[in-house]
């Protein structure tokens, strides 16, 4: 009956975030999230495999965007130009809605070690995916690994700037600036 | 009564690794680990806060060695020279015993998502600690963050080479090589 719940997914994310914030992540059950969102438990499980996944929803999509971006870069692109293409593609995942949720998501994660671990693995997985996509283009290791770490660092810094309530710039603009900053830092290192 | 169990800690690590390997991490209890090691449950808890901590034991010590190494570098040292000093200090944590346990620890972690998450957070924490120690030396952000990621990447690569059964080189020698490789890769990127 998914067609009768067009915004169920978004309502579930909102409900979960509110409950995690109000009563803590550990004290919140899937049943409570579904109730708050006004959907059934089975609707919850059509969208998420568990309460933790509500917070990392979109990881697979983000990973796909990053690797698609790298694959799309012209064959003449340098590793960092390929990473820039990855961030350009990734920008489409950072919707206004995601920006609204951002600070609350960060606060919930910061309050719970289990979630910090999940988040750390997410970053590690993104770095591995980028490194692998670069290897496929013929970028040798460890240049591929280093460029991937630089990409993830740029993503993290871009996200922090973009989520700032005073920010007026687009994710893409900020991503370019972050990459430029990191490219300069990398040059200063060597 | 810790003085009657001089090698209890090592026996507990060995017992835990064997049980995790034989029957899986999720199926292993603290009571089983203590029994296998021939100690009481309360002895277990004098050494570790839980079964998961057996696998990440030494993280705080490693973190301390890395930051001590950075603090010890001469004031004229470049960020990467400070990171090299961190890895030099860290080498003392990589004992022959740890090398023996290494492949088994890796296999147990690779088989369990929860442990992979814990391991990912460990790497993130090490990077943050290195970045903070560099900031304290006046290395500006994002150079500090980038040098820290490079250090963690070097640590990971060094550990993999050092744990290889055919390896004959010391941790310090391999760390220097890894850092040189990454410095070259970083120069190639920019």
Q: In brief, what are we looking at here?
A:
2 copies of one chain form a homodimer. Chain A has 10 helices and no strands. Chain A is mostly helical and 190 residues long.
Structure description:
2 copies of one chain form a homodimer. The first copy, chain A, has helices at residues 8-23, 30-37, 41-47, 51-56, 59-72, 79-90, 96-110, 113-136, 143-163, 171-189. Chain A is mostly helical and 190 residues long. In chain A, helix 5 (59-72) crosses helix 6 and helix 6 (79-90) runs antiparallel to helix 10. Chain A is elongated. The model of chain A has no long low-confidence stretch (mean pLDDT 92). Chains A and B meet through helix 8, helix 9 and helix 10 of A and helix 8, helix 9 and helix 10 of B.
